[in-house]
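Anyone have tokens for Putative btk-associated sh3-domain binding protein sab? Sequence:
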Amino acid sequence: STELDPRIQIELENLNTATDDINKLEIELEEANSTFRILMNESTRRLKLSSKKLGSCIEKARPYYEALEKAKVAQLECQAATLKYQRANEIHAAAKETVALAEQRFMSNSHEWQFDNAWQEMLNHATIKVMDAEKQKAESGAEHQKKAKVFEEAEKKVQQLEERYHRSIQKSRPYFDEKQLCQEQLEAQKGRIQQLEQQIQSAKTAYSTALRNLEKISEEIHQQRGDLSQAAPSGPREPGVGAELSNIMPAASSAATTATSNGGHHYHPHHNHHHHHQQQQHHHHHAP
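Reply: yep, here.
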């Protein structure tokens, strides 16, 4: 009797799940892109309106708001450099302590044990660590000073511009607040789009893997049972292995090859209904 290999059922289910995921996610991606376009158009419209209402003060104040943005970035970079420098200091102190302890231990036991290779190697290793840490400390210290200077300059520029264009800055604030809000909304939506793109990529990989697995299973069965096309169906509702695989195989081999040649990220939408149909032949209770 030609029972259907249970692994085929599992891989078909994997294939169908991946197909459903891809279709669902691609619809979501389309909607997310559409939302992004709507947000973009709406932002442009609102900013144009605000610009028309407020007039020339926007252009006068723009250098101040740009300088403010640069100062924020410089501040974050300065903070990161400070942390890096602190960490380098800690590592250096710990390395020096290790050397001191090793030397102390040697001195206190020098009358008992020989100046052996293992101890010498440990001390060398610890000394190298101290030298590396010193180098890191010097480099991160210099980098920290550089970043602090950049931040200081950026702050100074903000203050100068604030004094010079005080009235324009105050008057144009609604426009720049609106601009900030629009940018945050667009960034958030862009993040959502990237997340969906990654999920689609994963689902396509799962699809390709299932196809390749089906191809492997069918090759094994082919070797075990000789010519597949002679396998007879085992019953009216369960097609035999031959019927099942002759349905899958042309699709599986071409798609799996394409999937492999494309680094495993290839999806063939025309397989959808085909696989779902086979799924339902075996599991009638899945049908709604």
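Residues 1 and 175 are 77 Å apart (CA to CA).
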